[in-house]
Amino acid sequence: MPRLLIAAFALLLAGCATAPEPTPVSSEASTRTSEQLSDQELQSKWWTWAASSPENRNPVVDDTGQWCGENQPQDVWFFAGTFGGAVNRRCAVPAGRPLAGPALNLASTDANCAAFMEAAKGSVTLDGQLVELRRIAPVAITYQAAKDNVVGQREGRVAAQGCGLWAWIPPLKPGEHELVVKGASGDFSTSARYLLTVSSAD
Predict the structure, then answer these.
(1) 106: Cβ–Cβ under 8 A, 6 or more apart, which residues?
(2) What's the Cα-to-Cα distance from 22 to each of 19, 71, 126, rounded to whole Å?
(3) Which of 35, 61, 75, 181 has its Cα between 20 and 30 A from that of 50?
(4) Residue 189 near residue 15 (C-beta atoms within 8 A)
């Protein structure tokens, strides 16, 4: 996939525009609960993760799942859409780790976020059941961008307004799961299908 540089702002989208209204995931998906991160912390950590590796091993550019474990934090397992087009990823997920990621999201200015969210639609589906999404209005975030990152930022600390439609999924039971991420804004849409294998707890 060609490298995508966005000069004015960094944009990540995932999926198609049409989806029914989200409903909460059943509590049967996990035997544990997990406290969600704040809107600011969730987006700051996710963007740091997305901007932490170059194109040749970046989990957002990845179209097979080979790099989905790259630079994952210890307290949450992040997923992502794509920079355009559809992908299928097969990934291993550690036991006891909550999952989080956007149906679509943006890190830019307050005005750009507001315009972006007006047209934003998306869904996250786990094992055929819609996950309830958090609609996050623009909030100040800071994240760390690595050298040669794929979001078009210079290396170092980046300040922006973050917004999007976000999913938070409690730790899954061991075994196989399907996660489908879709979203769109305007005439741009992408999707990512994850086949997840959750390991057994030690």
Answers:
(1) 9, 10, 11, 12, 112, 113, 116, 117, 162, 163, 164
(2) 8, 30, 11
(3) 35
(4) yes
Please compute the mean of the pLDDT values over residues 169-195 and round it to a whole number: 94
Q: Which of 179, 178, 142, 184 is nearest to 161 (CA)?
A: 142
Q: Within a 10 A sphere around the Cβ of 60, how many other Cβ atoms?
A: 26
- What is the pTM for the complete model shown? 0.84
Q: How far apart are CA 60 and CA 83, in angstroms?
A: 7
pLDDT in tens, 103-120: 999 999 999 999 999 999
Q: Look at residues 146, 113, 103 and name the one whose alpha carbon lies nearest to residue 10.
A: 113
- The tokens describing 30, both together, are 């996990």
Cβ atoms of 144 and 88 closer than 8 Å: no
Distance of CA 128 to the CA centre of its chain: 18
Q: Which two tokens stand for residue 15?
A: 């999926």
The closest alpha carbon to 13, from 83, 78, 60, 65, belongs to 83
pLDDT band at 84 (very low <50, low <70, confident <90, very high): confident
> Which residue is listed with tokens 């996950």?
131
